[in-house]
Amino acid sequence: MATGKIRYIDTHTAGEPTRVVVDGFPHLDGESIADRRDALIRDHDDLRAGIVREPRGHEAMVAALLLESSVKECAAGVIFFNNVGALGMCGHGAIGVVKALHRLGKIDTGSCKLETPAGIIKTTLHPDGEVSVRNVRSYRFAADVSLTIDRGIEITGDVAWGGNWFFIAESPGISIEPRGIDELIELCCEIRRALQSAGVTGASGAPIDHIELHESLEEEDAGVRCFVLCPGKEWDRSPCGTGTSATLACLHARGQLAEGDSWTQVGPLGTRFSSSYIADGTAIYPTIRGNAYISGEGWLHFDEDDPFRYGIDCIDL
Q1: Measuring CA to CA, how many Å separate 70 from each of 75, 254, 296?
Q2: Residues 285 and 144 in one domain
Q3: Residues facing residue 167 across a β-bridge
Q4: Pair 277, 287: CB distance under 8 Å
Q5: Known catalytic residue: 188?
Q6: Is position 240 annotated as part of the catalytic site?
Q7: Are residues 284 and 252 in contact, defined by beta-carbon separation less than 8 angstroms?
Q8: How many Cβ atoms are within 10 Å of 120's Cβ, its own excluded?
Q9: Are residues 72 and 159 in the same domain?
Q10: Together in a domain, 273 and 312
Q11: Whole-structure pTM over 0.85, yes or no?
Q12: In this structure, are residues 209 and 236 in contact, taking their beta carbons and an 8 Å threshold?
């Protein structure tokens, strides 16, 4: 009866969990973190599922595998993954990773860089415990894309890259709050199906796997309440870091937010990220700021005789 073990630290950022995998994951071939992300999915996708899915996790959990980076200036490499696969980047997850690295004694207050599959990001752990993340280069890819969804209404939005691919639109009258979650999920699933049917993609045919809806914030001069449906049909409990980045890229493209001005995103639970950007031509380098908290740590066990060693696929139940 052999048992594999993986050491982890659990965090949550604005309510959204990140399971930081610290030790015990098998070796991944490849030079860059992007190469090793591909190796993870190719060779150890079953273990990915076992780490984040029930009974050890749950469908909304995101994990961050810590690795040594081949880039000398980076404190670590990190591969983000969720219940259905790997992610290019994860803003809330990066905030959680920084707090976990600090708990492990690997970084101090101040700045450090992390290598992700989407590129190198710069993070800062502030004296008050908050973390800011200067994300990868972000940009609007397509503007004013109109779709007719299953319920017969037209939705118009933008396609943008913020470390993941997003379709961003105004919510058509559904309030973004906890009691509206089920209806928001169904609406976003309809939008995703419409994108696929219409052949709308990101660059090089990349699938648009994140849907982001906005609702105005009356108390804020510059900001929105947002809802994000992630791959795997789970909703982001946080205001979504890569989604905030994609939103900033669209605002920049439309001339609706100036470089350096502050933008607030409020998630479905009422938690907030503050953000701003530096322009790079038609693209931007966004910075988001929020907080994460250590919620647990320990070891995951994977017994060879366990019928759910590699998790339960709740999506197909």
Answers
A1: 10, 38, 29
A2: yes
A3: 159, 211
A4: yes
A5: no
A6: yes
A7: yes
A8: 16
A9: no
A10: no
A11: yes
A12: no
Distance between CA 23 and CA 90 in Å, rounded?
20
Which residues neighbour 117 within 8 Å (Cβ) at sequence distance 6 or greater? 33, 34, 37, 79, 80, 86, 87, 88, 89
Q: What residues make up the domain containing 298?
A: 3-130+293-316
How far apart are the C-alpha atoms of 19 and 96, rounded to whole Å?
Answer: 8
Number of folded domains in the chain?
2
SS3 category, 237 = coil
- Two tokens, residue 122: 């710069």
Q: In this structure, what CATH number is given to the domain that contains residue 308?
A: 3.10.310.10
Mark whether 35 and 69 lie in a shared domain. Answer: yes
- List 90, 188, 226, 230, catalytic entry: 90
Q: Is 306 helix (H, G, I), strand (E, B) or coil?
A: coil
Q: Are residues 258 and 151 in the same domain?
A: yes
Instruction: Tell whether 205 and 297 lie within a shared domain.
Output: no
Do 229 and 184 form a contact (C-beta atoms < 8 A)? Answer: yes
The active-site residue, picked from 188, 226, 240, 250, is 240
- Does 221 lie in the same domain as 149? yes
**Residue-level pLDDT at 314:** 81
HSE, CB side, 13 Å, CA atoms: give it for residue 313. Answer: 7
Question: Per-residue pLDDT tens for 91-142?
Answer: 999 999 999 999 999 999 999 999 999 999 999 999 999 999 999 999 999 9
How close are the terminal C-alpha atoms of the chain, in Å?
29
Q: How many CB atoms lie within 10 A of CB 159?
A: 23
Give 241-276 pLDDT, tens digit per residue.
999 999 999 999 999 999 999 999 999 999 999 999
Residues 6+ apart with CB under 8 A from 60: 16, 17, 83, 234, 235, 237
The two tokens of residue 34 are: 């992007």
What letter would DSSP give residue 103?
A: H
